[in-house]
Amino acid sequence: MIPRYSRPEMAGIWEERERLQRMLEVEIAVCEELAARGEIPKEAVDEIKAKAAFDPARVRELERTIKHDVIAFLTNVAENVGPASRFIHLGLTSSDALDTALALQLVQAADIILADIARLRAVLKRRALEHKRTLMAGRTHGMHAEPTTLGLKIAVWHAEFGRAEERMRRAREAVRGGKIKPYRVKTPVTFEVDFKRTSPAHLGTLFPGVERRGPRTIAITQQDYVTGLQLLWGMLIIAIAVSEGIL
């Protein structure tokens, strides 16, 4: 993100370290699920959780040689974990970690925007009541029309952002998921990671389970789940900018 146009709380979600941290949380959650299924030793998972770490600079250094971002990340994690790292990413493909981690980031970003909308609507409500008797000229076809009130106009904006808030909640729900499809474990079928049981506590509030993509999901999460949220963000940015300029 461009720093001068980004707030710290939003930009922080998309920093490289945070992106890799979300990937690590997904990998650990999958390990815990596999251990609960008896696919890998629980002792190995405990060791992974205790030692798992990464250094973004080291990941970039490895990627220059390996020519693969996820393998470079996993290699760096393995350098810190040791032999137990052989159970990390077991049976997964790169997009299992990348897409699910991206969904975590999108949900975090959506939550910031929802909070912003709520604050903006509170301001609009206050201003609408404050100016409920403030007269102003109405407009029609680019010219003055019958008088109206500034409060009524602002109340319309308040209602408009209420609809925007609902659309954002629907978009957040649509993107709130991932895809974990292990290929080489004993039970080679898609499974749901129980994030409420696994260690990264905040994951449980984001995902009730991972596989939420429907019967036609393949190795890659279909991008229409993300596109709707991207378009909605663009619309909200324009609308908020206009409102801030007016208010």
Second rung of CATH, namely the architecture of the domain at 92-246: Up-down Bundle
- Rg for CA atoms: 23 Å
The secondary structure category is: mainly alpha
Mean pLDDT, to the nearest integer, reads: 81
Strand content: 5-15%
CATH class of the domain at 92-246: Mainly Alpha
Summarize the structure.
This protein is mainly alpha-helical and 247 residues long.
Could you walk me through the main structural features you see in this protein, from its secondary elements to its overall organization?
The chain is about 60% helix and about 5% strand. It has about 250 residues and is mostly helical. It has a domain at about 90-245: Fumarase/aspartase (Central domain) (Fumarase C, Chain A, domain 2). It has a two-stranded antiparallel ribbon with strand order 1-2. Strand 1 (about 135-140) and strand 2 form a beta hairpin. About 30% of the residues are buried. Residues about 195-200 and about 205-220 have low confidence and may be disordered.
